[in-house]
């Protein structure tokens, strides 16, 4: 009896606890361990409440997160209208206990407490999952994905909480980041639980993109914590901007990025945004064609793709690699061809190309639209990285 309990309890709770302590020790000014533990416990408690609410909502509406049960439209509606918002709200509720105390006195504390709440939530989710499915590699993979997923989703609005405490003004940053976390969370659930095991591959670019957001936010909040409090007057304090590309010795800060955007002596080159979007679309087409040609040369059978079987996802991974590989190339080409001093033109060009692609997929292949949304953040980041290298080479 005890062994059966520990078999699912320890794999669910122990990794989450270790990650909490890992995040805790990244804070230079350590928070009270009792308060971090309390937020972790509340994250687990509110997680249980969230799952109960989901179960009642599913029974009342007849909807389910699985597309095979509710259909594509029904599953997505249930995910984005009920499941993802309730889960992220549960994490915020757990964090609120610390946010209202005097111990929440630095911007970086937003990430510490948000991470504790998210990992407490993940521990309960994994406990329920592993208890119901004691064996099976696919369920262990889903449990392993839950830890970084919930951590990264919470870091987005945790960043906003840290900034709100520093500026002492609510602003619009928290609701915007919370909605973004809900959207990413909904996509994650759809790929991990709503579809077959083969759809797990779609979580890779989604989590990589969210990891990049979490890393940038943590870096920015740590710097702000070292600087101390700032004025809450309108227009004062550090701003987010696009970094000018002269300083290639280190990654740009969020403040430098926005200051570069505000420079009026260098107007935005709109034609290069349009040209860049066309270049990006062309690069995507070339990348897709090259992937298909390589697959044919390597005897890859693209007709065998089945989301219910993990072993058949190799063709999808090949096509995805070809498409993603096109973005740093297009960003590099746009940056080299234009005379822009910032990343604004390549970034907006990529965003425009992605938007056009999503609109076309929405009409032609709605199912592919969901996967494209998961790939979009990392595609945009790769294009910006290519543009960074291109501008550096020109300078």
From TrEMBL:
* Pfam family membership, one: PrsW-protease
Ranges in coiled-coil conformation: none
Q: Which domain of life is it from?
A: Bacteria
Keywords assigned: Hydrolase, Membrane, Metalloprotease, Protease, Transmembrane, Transmembrane helix
- GO function term, MF aspect, one: metallopeptidase activity
Entry annotated with the keyword Protease = yes
Residues spanning the membrane:
6-26, 33-53, 73-90, 111-132, 138-161, 173-193, 199-218, 272-294, 314-335, 347-365, 371-390
Protein name stated in the entry = PrsW family intramembrane metalloprotease
Organism phylogeny: Bacteria, Pseudomonadati, Myxococcota, Myxococcia, Myxococcales
């Amino acid at each position: 009896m005890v062994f059966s309990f520990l078999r699912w309890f320890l794999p669910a709770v122990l990794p989450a606890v270790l990650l909490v302590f890992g995040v805790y020790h990244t804070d230079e000014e350590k928070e009270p361990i009792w308060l971090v533990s309390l937020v972790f416990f509340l994250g687990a408690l509110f997680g249980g409440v969230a799952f109960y609410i989901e179960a009642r909502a599913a029974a009342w509406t007849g909807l389910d997160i699985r597309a095979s049960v509710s259909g594509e439209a029904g599953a997505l509606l249930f995910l984005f209208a009920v499941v993802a918002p309730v889960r992220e709200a549960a994490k915020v509720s757990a964090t609120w206990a610390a946010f209202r105390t005097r111990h929440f006195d630095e911007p970086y504390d937003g990430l510490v407490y948000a991470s504790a709440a998210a990992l407490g939530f993940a521990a309960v989710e994994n406990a329920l999952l592993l208890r119901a499915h004691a064996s099976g590699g696919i369920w262990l993979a889903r449990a392993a994905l839950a830890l970084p997923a919930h951590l990264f989703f919470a870091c987005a609005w945790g960043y906003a909480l840290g900034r709100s405490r520093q500026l002492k003004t609510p602003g619009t940053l928290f609701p915007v980041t919370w909605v973004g976390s809900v959207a990413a969370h909904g996509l994650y659930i759809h790929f991990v639980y709503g579809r077959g095991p083969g759809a797990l591959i779609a979580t890779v670019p989604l989590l990589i993109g969210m990891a990049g957001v979490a890393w940038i936010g943590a870096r920015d909040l740590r710097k702000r914590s070292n600087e101390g409090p700032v004025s809450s007057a309108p227009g004062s304090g550090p701003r987010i901007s696009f970094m000018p590309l002269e300083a290639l010795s280190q990654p740009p800060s969020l403040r430098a990025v926005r200051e570069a955007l505000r420079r009026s002596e260098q107007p935005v080159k709109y034609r290069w945004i349009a040209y860049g979007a066309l270049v990006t679309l062309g690069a995507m087409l070339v990348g897709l064609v090259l992937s298909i040609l390589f697959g044919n040369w390597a005897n890859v059978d693209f007709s065998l793709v089945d989301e219910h079987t993990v072993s058949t996802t190799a063709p999808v991974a090949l096509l995805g690699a070809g498409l993603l590989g096109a973005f740093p190339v297009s960003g590099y080409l746009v940056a080299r061809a234009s005379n822009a001093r910032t990343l604004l033109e390549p970034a907006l060009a990529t965003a425009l190309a992605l938007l056009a692609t999503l609109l076309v997929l929405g009409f032609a292949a709605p199912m592919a639209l969901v996967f494209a949304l998961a790939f979009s953040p990392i595609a945009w980041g790769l294009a910006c990285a290519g543009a960074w290298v291109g501008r550096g080479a020109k300078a």
